[in-house]
Write a structure and sequence with these properties.
This protein is an all-alpha fold. About 55% of the residues lie in helices and about 0% in strands. It has a single domain (about 30-190), classed as Hypothetical protein, domain 2 (Endonuclease III, domain 1), CATH 1.10.340. One of its GO terms (molecular function) is DNA-3-methyladenine glycosylase activity.
């Protein structure tokens, strides 16, 4: 990409990564289905690179019912066995079972709070935290907010969502703005 825009350095490498950075990462999300999609993808990432997951995103979309949490919650054992053979996703049984479990827990949170979005945004006071990161000053791996959220998710029975994974979710879905201040997206995501 040769458009001369200043970007966060982590996204440079291949076109899908740049497009993800430019169009999605850090944009505040209030849609429950999008939150569920990122919960599946980020829990699948544990121990892997985000680039690996992005390359398999369409495989996940196909395998996980277009991220429809109601359908995922009802996946039968036979389908779990099919998923373990699916090269379009990370074939880790614990992560696959966690996604199904988390779909069930996700709906419990919706029932209690009205939406998953209302629940999760409550951990940042309902509006994005605006960090002011500069080159050479990387984003933290966890924060007190991600620690609290991860602890609460664990208490509610969610799996594969520790504080580091939860903070990645908060970054991806705009609960925090961790674009570098000189990145063209820093001010753009503030306007949502």
């Amino acid at each position: 990409m040769n458009d001369q825009k200043s970007r966060c350095s982590w996204c440079l490498g291949f076109p899908e990564y740049i497009a993800y950075h430019d169009e999605e990462w850090g944009k505040p999300v209030w849609d429950d289905q999008i939150h569920f999609e990122f919960l599946i993808l980020e829990s699948a990432q544990a121990g892997l690179s985000w680039a690996t997951i992005l390359k398999k995103r369409n495989g996940y979309r196909d395998a996980f019912a277009n991220f429809d949490y109601k359908q995922v919650a009802e996946f039968p054992e036979g389908y779990v066995q099919e998923l373990l053979q699916n090269p379009g996703i990370i074939r880790n049984e614990l992560k696959i079972r966690a996604a199904i479990n988390n779909a069930k827990r996700f709906m419990e949170v919706q029932k209690e709070f009205g939406s998953f979005s209302d629940y999760i945004w409550g951990f940042v006071g309902g509006k994005p935290i605006q960090n002011k990161l500069k080159k050479g000053n990387p984003a933290p791996a966890t924060t007190p907010e991600s620690d609290l959220l991860a602890k609460d998710l664990k208490k509610r029975g969610f799996k594969f969502l520790g504080s580091t994974t939860v903070y990645a979710h908060m970054q991806a879905t705009g609960l925090v703005n961790d674009h570098l201040v000189d990145c063209f997206r820093y001010s753009e995501v503030q306007d949502y």
